[in-house]
Design brief:
The complex is a heterodimer of chains A (129) and B (551).
Chain A: H1 10-25, H2 29-35, E1 40-46, E2 51-57, E3 60-65, E4 73-77, H3 80-87, H4 93-100, E5 104-108, H5 110-128
Parallel strand pairs in A: 1-4
Antiparallel strand pairs in A: 1-2, 2-3, 4-5
Helix pairs in contact in A: 1-5
Chain B: E1 2-9, H1 13-24, E2 29-33, E3 46-47, H2 49-57, H3 61-67, E4 77-80, E5 87-91, H4 101-110, E6 122-123, H5 126-138, E7 143-147, E8 149-156, E9 161-167, E10 173-183, H6 190-194, E11 209-215, E12 231-236, E13 239-244, E14 252-257, H7 267-275, E15 282-289, E16 294-295, E17 300-301, E18 304-306, E19 312-313, H8 321-341, H9 350-376, H10 379-382, H11 386-389, H12 392-410, H13 413-417, E20 472-477, H14 484-492, E21 497-502, H15 505-511, E22 515-518, E23 524-528, H16 535-542
Parallel strand pairs in B: 1-2, 1-10, 2-7, 4-12, 10-18, 20-21
Antiparallel strand pairs in B: 3-6, 4-5, 8-9, 9-10, 11-14, 11-15, 12-13, 13-14, 16-19, 17-18, 20-22, 22-23
Amino acid sequence: MRVRMSDLKLLPLLALTPRMIRSAEKRSPRLRALLQEEEFTMEIATRSGVGGHFVLHNGQFDFHWGRHAKPDFAQLWRSGGDAVSTLTKRDETAMLRGYENGLYTMEGRFTIGLWFNEVMKLAREGRDN
Amino acid sequence: MIKTPVLISGGGPVGLTLALALSRHGIASIVVNDRTETTSHPKLDVVNCRSMEIYRQLGLAEKIRDAGNPRTANQYVGLAASASGPWYTVLKDRHLIYRPVAEAEKIIRENTDGSLPLESMQRIAQMHLEPVLLAEAQADPNIEVRFGWFLYGFEQDEMGVTAQIDDLATGRHVQVRAEYLIGCDGPASRVRNFLNIDYDGTRDILGELFIIHFRSDEIASLYPNREPYWHTWISRPGFQALLVSPDAGRNDFVLHRPFPPREGEKIDSIIDTALGRKLSYEIIRSGPWRPQFLVAESFGRKRVYLAGDATHQYMPTGGLGMNTGICEAQNLAWKLAAVIKGWGGPTLLDSYEAERMPIARRNREHVKKCAAAAFEIQFPIANAPADTLAGTAKRTEVGAIFEQKISRLYESLGIEMGYVYEHSPVIVSEGERGLQAEERRYLPTASPGARLPSTFLADGSALFDHLSPVGFTLLVCGEADNTARFAAAAAERRVPLKVLPLAEARLRTLYGCRYLLVRPDQHVCWRGDTLPSEPGQILDCVRGVEALVCA
């Protein structure tokens, strides 16, 4: 599938996510506890192949460029633009609406998706305060 | 000023169950509830196996079954593209809980290895459960029910709690002096807020879901024998929902959606899409709600305790919200009774949080996994091209994934009955740790802290029915040494004790020891192959007087 310019919008968002979490970690005990949970690999990418994967390992949450051979949980987006506009919405319901509307598909363990939702919410709350 | 041993704020299932359990111990209570009547919304749709065991102990199991799904009706769970089909699969016989209660009871009676509950689950809506509990409470001379009354505030001191309750209709204030106050007042618990206790999780991680309660006489025609399945999971590309029939004998249905209607989308069109055809129905109510995965940071302070949704808020996946609360009420009731009657020691009530908070957290993790499973079952459908779902092979594959994942919500007897009070100060531990059962499978164990595995005696009676509901029971498997010293030590401490000789040799094998001391909540608190030389030490530990250094 051809890579569109809008797909590339996803990359900076993903790359900045660990920094945002690290910053919030200092002020949120809950976030620190979440980072100590079971290790996993989570991929966020577009159907055109743009994206990367996050790894939670030894309490560290890092981003790696490129697709993972066997992620524990994966979101595959129709386009980078859809991913960015949905993932950055404050309304948690946007993710479920987007899923039913076919903006993305999922595979693997959705508990990791719940983990990511909670971590991002805590990270955003810190930034908003 | 009115005086009462226990004031309960909240007249939902947990508050009423607590009042009824206290009454069985001879303890009076006042229940205040700001609603003027029981709920008119279906709300929960299951009383699980463990809760039904507790209701059996309270003498209410049959009344609850009479008010719920008929004993001969199914408790099936299916996955379909719509309620009109095509069906991917239906869970029917693979586990006890899907079977009609009448069939499940036969299977339970034939079981001898202790691996099954004494009671199967009951499919019932909360709006039909609450009237049973309320009628029982209103008829009980130990319970004063005040619906339409509101807990305005309270203060506690060393000897008790002084609370102000207000009549919502007249504005009349009444002061109540109680030895204990229990907040069973739901997720927005005023009692918890007064105590300044927060939840330990993060709110709103899933966003807003949507629920529609409607009635229809025609939906039954979509199911074999005009008997709607308990849960119909509906999934096809572009539409996901859960259609619940809380009772196959009634025409109430509940439709759950993962988000509120889109702009311009009508409730009728959502129902029609779920049903797969146009049928007649009456919409009773609809609205958004927010699922949570929260547990309170503390279960009470001094003379004020919390139970039910005041201690935990779960997404209903797994049916553990009220059912966890029923176990909390049972745990708290005998401890309150023991302390009020004078034979319970100072650490007995502390053990309520020590025992129940780890279980509330464990159940939360289970509920999260169940919620995840409810989403994961949609993945193979959403990811599949629509035309492949028309094929039998693809539907069979989707059905198999559904069975493997969604069964976690329904078949987890390990969660329901396998919890062990491992770190309790009132359990004489054998020093073994990591006893918590698997989530799904219940592995019967009579280790201290565990629920006693249920079994039937040679005369056909249930062993649980012989246990003392108001005191400890010393089970004696096989030939006994002289139990008189044990009984004398209990009498000296005014601890109610029943000695129950069990002649059947298989029970010694099932329970792993000759002697077991079982609490009023059917949990084992000590066991051994010989009677202790100092029975008073054991009794002082389990009644919360003195911690015992365990072997």
